[in-house]
Amino acid sequence: MANNKAQIKLTPVGKLTPDEAAQELARLAAAITQADEAYYARDKPEISDAEYDALRRRNLLVEKRFPKLKRDDSPSDKVGAAPSARFEKAKHAVAMLSLDNAFGDEEVADFDQRVRRFLGLGGDASPAYTAEPKIDGLSLNLRYEKGVLTGAATRGDGEIGENVTSNVLTIADIPQRLNNAPEVLEVRGEVYMSHADFEALNKRLASEGEDVFANPRNAAAGSLRQLDAAITASRPLRFFAYAWGEISEDIAATQWDAIQVFKKLGFRINPLTKRCDDVAGLIAQYRKIEEQRATLGYDIDGVVYKVDRLDYQARLGFVSRHPRWAIAHKFPAEKAMTMLEDIEIQVGRTGKLTPVARLKPVTVGGVVVSNATLHNADEIERKDIRIGDTVVVQRAGDVIPQIVEVVKDKRKKGARKFKFPDRCPVCGSHAVNEKNPQTGKPDIDRRCTGGLICAAQAVERLKHFVARNAFDIEGLGEKQIAAFFAQGIIKEPADIFTLQRRQEQGEIDLYAYKMKKDGAPQLDRDGAKQPTNKKSVENLFAGIDARRKISSARLINALGIRHIGETNARLFAGHYGDFAGFYEAALKARDESSPAYEDLLSIDGVGALVAQGAIDFFDEDHNREAVDRLLEEVKPQKAETVAATGAVAGKTVVFTGKLELFTRDEAKARAQTLGAKVAGSISAKTDYLVAGPGAGSKLKKAEELGVKVLTEEEWLALANA
Ligand code: IVH
After folding, report:
1. 321 Cα–ligand 1 center, Å
2. Does 155 contact ligand 1 (Cβ within 6 A)?
3. For residue 273, which of 256, 290, 294 has the smallest C-alpha distance?
4. In CATH, what number does 101-330 get?
5. pLDDT tens figures, 476-500
6. Mean confidence (pLDDT) of the chain
7. Which of residues 479 and 329 earns the better pLDDT score?
8. DSSP 648-704
9. In testing the pocket of ligand 1, which one of 111, 130, 139, 159 has its CB within 8 Å of the most ligand atoms?
10. CB distance 135 to ligand 1 below 6 Å
11. Which terminal CB of the chain, N or C, has fewer other CB atoms within 10 Å?
12. Catalytic sites, residue numbers
């Protein structure tokens, strides 16, 4: 089309006068509408995808420069979510998982061993793998339906991300239409910013008097998560495709071929991706990528290995949040030298006293570090760390920086030893090293005995309660919790859910605080001088109400029970069906001779320590009371079983003896995918014992208890029924 060919001679956006800009926006709106009609209504595109993308990008850039001229019928509002006060949530059709890490060649060999063992591959039958750089950006899910980009979402907590569709439309690397794609295709990959673009962006921000970004990753995240898509458009983001989510038909039989399909569809794939025959090949590619790291022009933090055959990937499946078929081989942590100015004690959620090093700020791998964890008293002693020492700090990925060693040559006379306190610095209670019930030895960590009276523990528990993998309440993060706690407005979880009622009854006055007006209410300590933003308070109430229905696993995790984190919380929710089931079972299990106790321990993955954590928690009156008050406000949902139907769904099965048709790991994983619960020992609740040759005591016990015993073949027939 003639008017699009003319684009080459267009005036640069920076040189447009307001009049020209208004005309340009009108022209672009018309051209985009026309292109949309041709594409959607008549199925006859008149311009190429690249031309179409360019129109949209130019439109956004003009809008960014002249926000007041933005048209009511602006094309940038038409696709995806209308820009609202905050991003809409987007539930992923297939969860977005993270990768397990390997540090060092040996752990890579272990990974390969695990894969082979799981698949039952013998001696020299090595599966092929792919190796590719691990891009240090943020992952993104792109959904295409009938070849049209219909949605884009960040990873979020893996289950639910943020809908960033309108922003993604501004990224040149991301095609908005695909030819010959399956009906539904979700392409996943990494959004990142190159070093050159990052430097240029920071330079511009600095010259405009704005805050600069600490590193390209933050810059990419900050740019993608802009509420104003025009800002995203003005910040160059790039994208590498490396994985997929929902897909309506198979596109390949191997990882390698799938990535080649992406390339054909118009995505950028990383040129350093290689197919390797075995571990030696993976390590060779790792070294090659490591050598090139400094000159790539973008940040990578390791190399990702994936089992190549997709049927193997399917069999390997997942362990909690990681695929068994992939691993990230991380580069060694970056290091720097600085001065240890002081050591302070932080009191955590469980009362643990953690010494924290206050450092003279130093840049480590592009990030300014001023704190490092010292873990415990032992660590300080062992490394002979003294205040005033010159120390080597290291930082790997998102892990908290650590002190590797003291540079003894540089020790000054005034360097002084740190005396680890025997009282809690927050509440003054005694701090002790408890005896470990299993080993009988004193614990390495020192803990505050203040329990409920310790403000530090209480506030940390509340922060944990609202954390991303727990209640994840929009507008109620760590800062707000700390401020509300300090004001005595929120003392325990239930208080969060009574805020609105208390506000309406005049017991508290949230309007007296200034809430930041960007949609995420933030308490501002000296806010009284500022006008109150009523809308923010209402948004907060809405965010809280949205979480009154909560998954049982999140609720269990949110309580912060000793030894029970995200993974165990899921195990419990799955095993007991919902929160109430777990609560009741933990109460009954106080009697160690009860079937409830036996059942609790029979859960695969639950040991004595975890079981004790659950029992002890519910044994405390004040915990039960706090939970009961919370349950008046929130409704825990039934746990989703992986497969709710099928002959073995919901049944408890134990495997014993030598299995011949599949490895133990695979049998277990497969049973779980079918919705069965795999237990480690026989109890009255066991439905089936699958016994291979050489089964011993478990078989005997099953017979005594009248548990149905199956051969492997019988189990398979039943499971596949
Ligand atoms: S594969 C099921 N490949 O690393 C696993 N991830 O810790 C799918 N990442 O959230 C991920 N480069 O953001 C994969 N070449 C790559 C990657 C990569 C970076 C990120 C991704 C993911 C995180 C996992």
Report:
1. 12
2. yes
3. 256
4. 3.30.470.30
5. 988 889 989 988 999 999 999 999 9
6. 88
7. 329
8. TTT-EEEEES--SSS-HHHHHHHHHHTTPEEBSS--TT--EEEE-TT--HHHHHHHH
9. 139
10. yes
11. C
12. 134
- Ligand 1 center to 99 CA (angstroms): 6
**DSSP E strands, 366-510:** 367-373, 390-395, 402-406, 431-432, 447-448
Please provide the size of the chain in residues: 721
CATH code for the part of the protein at 454-547: 1.10.150.20
163 touches 155 (CB < 8 A):
no
Q: How confident is the model at residue 676 (pLDDT cuts 50, 70, 90)?
A: confident
Q: Which CATH architecture has domain 335-453?
A: Beta Barrel (2.40)
R_g (Cα) of the chain, nearest Å: 29
Closest atom of ligand 1 to 97 CA is 2
Q: What is the pLDDT of residues 538-551, one digit of tens each?
A: 889 999 999 999 99
Residue 695: CB within 6 Å of ligand 1?
Answer: no
CA 34 to centroid of chain Cα atoms:
41
Q: What is the pLDDT of residues 239-248, one digit of tens each?
A: 999 999 999 9
Ligand 1 atom at minimum distance from 326 CA: 5
Q: Whose CA is nearest to atom 23 of ligand 1?
A: 98
What is the distance in A from the centroid of ligand 1 to the CA of 304?
Answer: 7
Is the CB of 327 within 6 Å of ligand 1? no
CATH superfamily, domain at 2-78: Helix hairpin bin (1.10.287.610)
Q: Which residue has the higher pLDDT, 486 or 86?
A: 486
Q: Is 670 in the pocket of ligand 1 (CB under 6 A)?
A: no
Asked if CATH classification 1.10.150.20 holds for the domain at 550-637, the reply, yes or no, is: yes
Measured between alpha carbons, how far is 712 from 686 in angstroms, rounded to an integer? 16
The reported pLDDT for the residue numbered 405 is: 92
CA–centroid distance, residue 98 to ligand 1 (Å)? 6
Residue 273 CA, closest ligand 1 atom number: 15
Tell me how far the alpha carbon of residue 161 lies from the centroid of ligand 1, in angstroms. Answer: 15
Each domain of the chain, given as residue ranges in start order, spans 2-78, 101-330, 335-453, 454-547, 550-637, 652-719
Residue whose pair of structure tokens reads 């953690």 in the numeric block: 354
Q: Is the CB of 186 under 6 A from ligand 1?
A: no
| pLDDT over 90 at 645, yes or no | no
Mutation test residue for ligand 1: of 134, 240, 247, 319, the one with most atoms within 8 Å of CB: 134
Is the alpha carbon torsion for 584, 588, 592, 598 positive or negative?
A: negative
